[in-house]
Amino acid sequence: MSASSCTVGLPQMKDYVLTESLGTGTYATVYKAVHKGKQKGVVAVKCIKRSRLTVSSMENLLTEIKVMKQLQHEHIVQLSEFEWDTNYIFLIMEYCSGGDLSNFIRSRNTLAEVEAKYFLQQLACALQFLRSKGIAHMDLKPQNLLLHVTASRKYILKVGGTNIACQPTGFWHSAFIFSNCCAGSL
């Protein structure tokens, strides 16, 4: 099978070639991708179908993009850019080659205490940073904790997922967080 036949049926982007699906959710599919011209390396591209978004969810997505662009932290998946066409909104993000924490644990059947402590320290660092910015994650679970593998084969945990950029404010923010977490997990 040729490389071009592997991408048949995938969304088309101006500057990137989508190479394989990394995961699918209700509103989007995340793909591994490479830049067409420049040597930028591998990225992850979240392709969100515009037809599935309501006006309200589109506004929430644009707010999320704005906030995510400002989050620069070693334990948070970086959003580098975004683009759109008539069918999709594309979020171009840092690619984490180690998969997610859920698959990492499943592949080993266990997680040693020293590994758990190592990952929890990194998670705590990311959550402390988010809290300092007044941001609640909204969908924290092992599938949204991604692993970057360094050249020395060291795993770096990075918080990802679709609801990283919620900034509830005002008196009702606790109820807002609770109701959205519950609704998002049903």
- Rounded Rg: 17 Å
Helix content: 25-40%
> Given the structure, what is the number of helices?
5
User: What's the number of extended β-strand segments?
Assistant: 7
Give a verbal description of the structure.
With 186 residues, the chain is α+β, with helices and mostly antiparallel strands. It contains 5 helices and 7 strands, in the order H-E-E-E-H-E-E-H-H-E-E-H. The chain has a 5-stranded antiparallel beta sheet, with helices on one face. A two-stranded antiparallel sheet has the order 6-7. 23% of the residues are buried. Residues 1-5 and 174-186 have low confidence and may be disordered. Pfam families: Pkinase. GO terms for molecular function: ATP binding; protein serine/threonine kinase activity.
Which key features would you list for this structure?
alpha+beta, Phosphorylase Kinase, domain 1, Transferase(Phosphotransferase), domain 1, 2 domains, five-stranded antiparallel β-sheet, two-stranded antiparallel sheet, disordered C terminus, ATP binding, ATP-binding, protein serine/threonine kinase activity, Protein_kinase_ATP_BS
Q: Could you provide a short overview of the structure?
A:
Residues 1-5 and 174-186 have low confidence and may be disordered. The chain has helices at residues 3-6, 55-70, 101-108, 113-132, 173-185; strands spanning 16-24, 28-35, 42-49, 79-84, 88-94, 145-149, 155-159. A hairpin with a 5-residue loop joins strand 6 and strand 7.
